[in-house]
């Protein structure tokens, strides 16, 4: 791995870690339920991006498949939580 790519991946992982900590604070302190749902959705996005950066770093395709699964589960859970907030039930 070249030194520039190593530095860029370390920098990206540090930025995602800092952003995840800030989003976690919003998740815990969010005044409304919508803020908490949005923060949880952002945590899924950050997790997906971290997995993709690690996949680039180790040059493995398995990490990209894992990122796709994280994105899929993140979308489904965000949709379920939004429906629960709107209607009070998930399954009709």
Model regions low in confidence, pLDDT < 50 over at least 5 residues: none
The amount of beta strand, in percent, is under 5%
User: Which descriptor suits the 3D outline?
Assistant: elongated
Query: How many strand segments?
Result: 0
Number of H/I helices: 3
What does the radius of gyration come to? 16 Å
Biggest sheet character: none
Helices and strands, in N-to-C order? HHH
Return the structural class. Answer: mainly alpha
Arithmetic mean pLDDT: 90
Binned, the helix content reads over 70%
Distance between the termini: 52 Å
Structure description:
With 92 residues, this protein is mainly α. It has a domain at 31-87. The chain has 3 helices and no strands. Helix 1 (3-29) runs antiparallel to helix 2 (33-58) and helix 2 (33-58) packs antiparallel against helix 3 (62-87). The chain is elongated and about 50 Å long. The termini are far apart.
């Amino acid at each position: 791995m070249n030194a520039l790519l190593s530095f860029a991946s370390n920098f990206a992982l540090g930025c995602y870690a800092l952003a995840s900590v800030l989003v976690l604070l919003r998740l815990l302190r969010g005044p409304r339920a919508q803020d908490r749902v949005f923060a949880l959705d952002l945590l899924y996005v950050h997790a997906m991006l971290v997995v993709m950066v690690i996949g680039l770093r180790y040059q493995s395709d398995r990490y990209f498949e894992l990122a796709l699964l994280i994105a899929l589960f993140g979308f489904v859970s965000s949709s379920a939580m939004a429906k629960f907030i709107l209607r009070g039930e998930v399954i009709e």
